[in-house]
Specification:
Blueprint (H helix, E strand, L loop, with lengths): L1 E2 L2 H13 L8 E2 H4 E2 L4 E2 L12 E3 L3 H10 L5 E4 L12 E4 L2 H19 L1
Parallel strand pairs: 1-2, 1-5, 5-6, 6-7
Antiparallel strand pairs: 3-4
Length: 115
Amino acid sequence: MISGSEKHLKEMEKQLQLMKFEQVESRLLSNVFNLERTTFSPDFHEEKYDLIVFNQLTAEEIDQYMDRSTLDAFVGFSLETLKVKDRLKLNFANSPFTLYARTMEVLKYQAVKEN
């Protein structure tokens, strides 16, 4: 899970624990992706993750990240409506229930795709 602020990171960690998701790694966007250079941090290895969940990021931040990513599916959580460029890659949620549903949908999609 990638958040834009420490406050949002902590809130979402609690929410994901309540949803019984295990092995979730939480990181701040600034520690993962350099927005000015549009490059990943050297110590961030995206390929080791099953799913990236964007938490309370702007549409611009999400677009820049997805433009550089090799993944084909993401989940985004925001209380605001976001207009990102590639809606086919982003499964959007604006409530905890929808976040759970979208996350499960993407994980199931990935499991089917791998088989």
